[in-house]
Amino acid sequence: MTSTSENGRIKGIFTVQEEFPMMYIHYCTHCDRIHMLNGHKTSCPACGQPLKELSVSFLEFTNMDAQERDLYQEKCRSVL
């Protein structure tokens, strides 16, 4: 027997999961900007130059305060 969930999807034997895009943190050395982008992007949305995907997770980055983010960006400048 099947039923529908709140969003109208059919529930059956398997669990209904919402589809949310995966967010990844990228750094552009040309723009010196950190971007939060969905998926594994390879070019900067601002300038079109190649991006570096960072090892920090989206949740870790968004939980940083402004000072921690500035320090992380400074680390990106010196390492990448």
Could you please describe the fold and organization of this structure?
The mean pLDDT is 84. The protein contains two helices and five strands; from the N terminus they run βββββαα. The protein is an alpha+beta fold. Helices cover 24% and strands 28% of the residues. It has a domain at 23-66 and 75-80. A three-stranded antiparallel β-sheet has the order 4-3-5. A two-stranded antiparallel ribbon has the order 1-2. A hairpin with a 4-residue loop joins strand 3 (23-28) and strand 4 (33-38). The protein starts with a strand and ends with a helix. The chain is flat and about 50 Å long. The longest helix has 14 residues, at 66-79.
SSE layout and pairing:
Elements lengths: L2 E2 L5 E2 L11 E6 L4 E6 L13 E6 H5 L3 H14 L1
Antiparallel strand pairs: 1-2, 3-4, 3-5
Proportion in helices: 10-25%
Largest sheet: 3 strands, antiparallel
Spatial separation of the terminal alpha carbons: 55 Å
Rg calculated over all Cα atoms: 18 Å
What features would you highlight for this structure?
flat; 5 strands; 28% strand; alpha+beta
Quick recap of the structure?
By secondary structure, the protein is α+β, with helices and mostly antiparallel strands.
